Amino acid sequence: MTSSLKHRVYQLINPSEKGGRLGRLFDMFIILLIVLNILAVILSTMEHLHLRYKQAFDLFELFSVLIFTAEYLLRIWVCTCEERYQRSPLGRLRFMFTPMALIDLLAILPFYLPFFITADMRVLRALRLFRLFRVFKLARYTESLRHIRAVFVDKRGELGVVLMVVSTMLILSSSLMYLAENEAQPEVFSSIPAAMWWSVVTLTTVGYGDLYPITPFGKLLAAIIALLGVGIVALPAGIIASGFIREDMEESNAENKKHTCPHCGQDFKP
C-alpha cells in the first residue's frame, strides 16, 4: 500500500513521468507559484508597496514556503522510486545533494534561517533576496533550461580552458598596465588589483571610461588588450553555440529513432 502510494506521488510530482491530468495541474500550480514568488520579491523591494501590503506579502510567503517545504520533503520521500537512489538512507542522501534538490532547499532556507541565527537587518534583507533562487526551480519544468544545463555540463572542459586563458590574460594585462601607468597615475593604478578593474572592463569590451591610460605605452597596451578582448568574448560564445547545435542534433536523432507501438501507444527504440 505504502509502495503504491509512493509511486503515485512520484509520478505526480515529477514532470518527466506520466502523472496524468492531475500531474499536469500540479506542475502548472508550482510554476505559477514560482512566478508569483519572484514577482512578490521584486515588488516587496518597493518601500511604499512593502509598507502598505506587508501582511499580504508575509501571508503569501508563508503559504509558498509551506507548499515548497512539502514538495521538498515529498521529493526526498519518493526519490527511492528511482533505481539510482534505492539504497536507503544513502540513496536519499545522494538525492539531497543533486543540483535540483539543493535548489529546492535554497528556495525555502531563507525563511527558516532567522529562526536559528541572530542577524541584523542587512543580513535579513539579503536573506529575503535569496528567495530569488526559486526561479531556478523552473529548470525542472522547462525543457530549454534543461538544455542549457546539459550544454554547460557537456562543454565544461572547454569552458574551463577558456576560464584559464581569461584569468591569465586578466593577470597579465593588469600587471603590464600597472607597470605602464603607476608612475603617471599612482592614485588610479596604485596596485595590480586596482588595475584589474580596468582590465575586466577592457577585456569584456564594456569600456566605462572611469579609468584610462595617459602614457603612450599605456595607450598602445590598451589598444592591444581591447582587440584581444573581442576574441576573448567570442571564445565562450562559440563553444556554447556549438554545444546547443550538438544538443539539438542529438535530440532530433533520438526522436527519429523512436517508434510507437500500435497496440499500447508506448514509444520504444528498435
TrEMBL record:
The name this protein goes by in its record: Ion transporter
Superkingdom: Bacteria
Membrane-topology annotation of the record: Multi-pass membrane protein
Segments passing through the bilayer: 25-44, 56-74, 95-117, 159-179, 188-208, 220-245
Stretches assigned to the Ion transport domain: 24-244
Keywords assigned by UniProt, alphabetized: Ion channel, Ion transport, Membrane, Potassium, Potassium channel, Potassium transport, Transmembrane, Transmembrane helix, Transport, Voltage-gated channel
GO molecular function annotation: voltage-gated potassium channel activity
Claim: Transport is one of the keywords in the record: yes
Localization per record: Membrane
Cellular component per GO, a single term: voltage-gated potassium channel complex
Gene3D superfamilies reported for this sequence: 1.10.287.70, Voltage-gated potassium channels. Chain C
GO biological process: action potential
InterPro entries: Ion_trans_dom (IPR005821), K_chnl_volt-dep_Kv (IPR003968), VG_K_chnl (IPR028325), Volt_channel_dom_sf (IPR027359)
SUPFAM superfamilies: Voltage-gated potassium channels (SSF81324)
